[in-house]
Amino acid sequence: MSDLNELSLLGRSEHRLPASPDEAELETFPNRTPGRNYTIHLTAPDFSSLCPVTGQPDAAHVEIIYIPDERCVETKSLKFYLASYRNHAAFNEAIVNRILDDLVKACAPRQARVRGRFAPRGGIQLTCEACHPDRDAALGWPAA
Question: ω before 133 within 30° of 0 (cis)?
Fold first, then answer.
């Protein structure tokens, strides 16, 4: 439990959300079973961001699945991190790739995938998926 003392959000009544992904921090904790390949699947069905052209809100269902190595992402910090996109203007594809990059930087997983299924705009529904280190069926990602 002493290694959890480094976490700044877990167990605290912090209510101020980061203003942007640049301000947000993905906190991590030691993987208790680093010798085993297992997946962690996280979903955020109410993700939102802003269109960089129109300023209109974009809604998405974001899924993160990863095989941890030495560290795991703490979920409250992930919630705050994802919420930091609410007032952030970026294209959908850039968001999915940034989330993956930030996850890899924070916890260096063995493998990871981020998928964003964005709400339709103009009759077109966009789904973007980014993988680390590359596309590998070993994660058992379900078909879209």
Answer: yes
Q: Which amino acid is at 97?
A: N
Out of 3, 22, 46, 58, which one is annotated catalytic? 58
User: Looking at 22, 51, 101, 136, which residue is catalytic?
Assistant: 51
pLDDT tens digits, 99-126? 999 999 999 999 999 999 999 988 999 9
- What predicted TM-score, i.e. pTM, was given to this entire model? 0.85
Q: Which amino acid is at 90?
A: A
- Tens-digit pLDDT profile for residues 19-55: 999 999 999 999 999 999 999 999 999 999 999 999 9
Domain architecture of the chain: domains with CATH: 23-138 (3.30.1130.10)
